[in-house]
Every structure is written in C-alpha cells, then in structure tokens.
TrEMBL record:
Source taxon at top rank: Bacteria
InterPro entries linked: ArsR-like_HTH, HTH_ArsR_DNA-bd_dom, HTH_MetalResp_TranReg, WH-like_DNA-bd_sf, WH_DNA-bd_sf
Domain HTH arsR-type intervals: 12-106
UniProt keyword list: DNA-binding, Transcription, Transcription regulation
Transmembrane segments: none
UniProt-recorded name of the protein: Helix-turn-helix domain-containing protein
C-alpha cells in the first residue's frame, strides 16, 4: 500500500541491495544487537521509544538509521510514532540462517556473561 500524500517516508534498501558486510557491521554493535534481539522477541513492530538504551536520543537515532540502511529493519511512521520491524523474510532469503544463528549466539553469550 502506498503512503498517503504528504506522509513521511524513510529510505530502505531494496532486498537485492542488502549487503552481507553492511548487515554484519550493523549487528557488530552491542546496542544495535540489543535492538534486534528485542525486535526478534516482539510479536510485531515496536516504536523507537519502547527501547531503553544506555545512549542519548541522538545516538539512538543513529543506531536505528544504521539498522535501517543496512536492511535489517523497516521503519514506518504511524502518526508521530516511528515503528520498527525486522526484515526477517528479506534477510532469510538473502542469507539463510544468518539472523537466527546470530540471535542464538547472542542469547548464549548473554547467558554466559550474565547479561540480558
């Protein structure tokens, strides 16, 4: 469905433009990995304000931009809220098992290190 006239839209890479090195770079940051883990555990999309991150608002904005521009998340506006959802289908089609493997490894690491 096309956005309404005057609606704010954000640029996302098309599926065929998503690069492995960009995905791996985005997931190499602990804050961004935390965001992806929370999105993976969610039933649906989450607003940016749902995340309690240990960084400033401007740094949070940067992290979400990196995730969006790498093709890991899709961001859409609903009213004034910016909604975030994982692009699981796109990532699985391009890199089968990658996201699942990274999420499983992050869970094991969190358990081993006593983090969340």
């Amino acid at each position: 469905m096309a956005p309404a006239a005057g609606a704010r839209t954000l640029a996302h890479p098309a599926r065929q433009e998503i690069r492995l090195e960009a995905v791996l770079h985005a997931l190499s940051d602990p804050v961004r990995l935390c965001v992806v883990r929370e999105l993976a555990a969610a039933e649906g999309e989450l607003t940016c304000s749902c995340f309690d991150l240990p960084v400033t608002k401007s740094t949070t904005t940067h992290h979400f931009r990196v995730l969006r521009e790498s093709g890991i998340v899709r961001q859409t506006y609903r009213g004034t809220a910016k909604m975030n959802g994982l692009r699981r289908d796109d990532l699985e089609a391009l890199f089968p098992g990658l996201l699942t493997g990274i999420l499983e490894a992050a869970e094991l690491q969190a358990g081993r290190l006593g983090g969340s």
